[in-house]
Amino acid sequence: MHRSARLDAPDVEVTDFAGLAIGWDRRVLRPRPWTAEQGRWAADLLLGAPDGPILELCCGAGHIGLLAAHGSGRDLVQVDEDPTAAAYARRNAEAARVRSDVRVGPLGSSLRAEERFPMVIADPPWLPMVGVAYPDEPVEPSTGAVEGVDALHECVDVCLDHLAPDGHVVLQVGLSKQVERLTGWLAEYAAADATVPERAVLGVRDRRPGGYLVHVGPSRGA
Questions:
Q1: InterPro entries annotated for this entry (predicted)?
Q2: Burial of 9 (0-12, 13-18, 19+ CB in 10 A)
Q3: pLDDT band at 126 (very low <50, low <70, confident <90, very high)
């Protein structure tokens, strides 16, 4: 059963996100314009990909996944632990006329073990507890552990667990050292299970002061 949240707060705002009208309020992460590139990049990578919906983890108000769905004509599965964010994701999907199965709860347990997706989009909590880069935003939705990697690592594991064999991930991180950590995690994941396809970082786009966008896909050497 979905937990529900009220969206009748007087401070609801609507932001134009690359042509989509996205509702949100200060309880969730502000839709940041630079992240539209994440949705567009995901849509481009889906050209010619097998059928199936897009999975968006840590979806927040749902704007990045919705942009990818608009660009690719696909349905969505969106997951967030925060009922308020999920409620906005549902409302924004309805407004955009995109079919989205929005789920509330921990990332791993919100997905069935057998579910696989050709594309996973993720905006995990990656900010370190010290030196938060977005002081005007709520800390919890965008903050990981001391180095900003615990929640990011958990999210990457869920991405890989539910990625189709030839699928792709486009995720957001904030620090160059997190990109380096990601490369190591991919190697560890492949070493732990010889039956899973090898994956690698295939592209990185530096969009600071916002962050980095990272494309993970089938290893070119596999």
A1: N5-glutamine_MTase, SAM-dependent_MTases_sf, Small_mtfrase_dom
A2: exposed
A3: confident
Which CATH code is given to the segment(s) 13-218?
Answer: 3.40.50.150
The encoded tokens of residue 35 equal: 């992240």
Integer Cα distance of 198 and 195 in angstroms: 9
Beta strands in 25-87 (DSSP E): 54-57, 76-80
Do the Cβ atoms of 93 and 85 come closer than 8 Å? no
pLDDT tens per residue across span 33-91: 999 999 999 999 999 999 999 999 999 999 999 999 999 999 999 999 999 999 999 99
Distance CA 65, CA 55 (A): 8
Return the half-sphere exposure (C-beta side, CA atoms, 13 A cut-off) of residue 190: 14
Q: Which amino acid is it at 94?
A: E
User: E strand or H helix at 118, and its extent?
Assistant: strand 117-122
Domain extent listing, the chain: 13-218
Task: Compute the CA torsion angle 166, 47, 45, 158 (nearest 10 deg).
Answer: -50
- Which pair of structure tokens corresponds to residue 83? 């009922």
CB 155 within 8 A of CB 81: no
- Written as six digits, the tokens of 191 are 């070493």
Element (H, E) at 52: none
Element (H, E) at 219: none
163-216-159-38 Cα dihedral, nearest 10 degrees: -110
- DSSP strand pairing (199-206 vs 212-218): antiparallel
